[in-house]
Write a structure and sequence with these properties.
single chain, alpha+beta, extended, 3 helices, about 25% helix, four-stranded antiparallel beta sheet
C-alpha cells in the first residue's frame, strides 16, 4: 500500500543511472582540482604518475578567485594547444560548475579540421 501511494500523489521519484567501464587510468584527459579538494594537486599528480608514468602534467591556476587550484592534464593534448590556453578554456567552461571541494573529471576531444582550396593554372 505504501508504494502505491507514492505513485498516485504529486510526488515522484525518478532514478537515472549510468554505468561506465572503470578505466585505467581513471583520469582520461584532465582533472580540475578544487582548492579544498580531498586530493590536492601534488597527490593527484603522484597518483597519475604511478598509474600512467609520464603521461600527465600539472598546470597551476593563478589567483585565489578561482575555485580551481590546479589542472592535471594529459600531456598529449598540449601538443595541440599550449597549457595556458587549454587552462583558460577549461576554466571558462567548467569553473562555474565546480566548488572548491570538488575534483571534476573532464574528457577532452581535440580535432584538427582542414579546409584547403587548390587552384590549378
Amino acid at each position: 500500500m505504501r508504494q502505491s501511494s507514492m505513485f498516485n500523489g504529486e510526488r515522484s521519484l525518478r532514478v537515472r543511472a549510468r554505468a561506465q567501464r572503470f578505466e585505467i587510468p581513471p583520469i582520461r584527459d584532465a582533472l580540475l582540482i578544487g582548492r579544498l579538494a580531498p586530493i590536492g594537486p601534488e597527490a593527484a599528480r603522484r597518483m597519475a604518475e604511478a598509474i600512467a608514468p609520464g603521461q600527465y602534467t600539472l598546470l597551476r591556476v593563478e589567483g585565489d578567485a578561482e575555485p580551481v587550484e590546479a589542472i592535471l592534464v594529459r600531456k598529449a593534448h598540449l601538443r595541440f594547444l599550449d597549457g595556458k590556453h587549454l587552462a583558460r578554456i577549461l576554466l571558462e567552461e567548467f569553473a562555474q560548475f565546480i566548488s572548491p571541494e570538488d575534483v571534476l573529471r573532464v574528457d577532452i576531444e581535440l580535432e584538427i579540421l582542414l579546409d584547403r582550396t587548390l587552384s590549378f593554372s
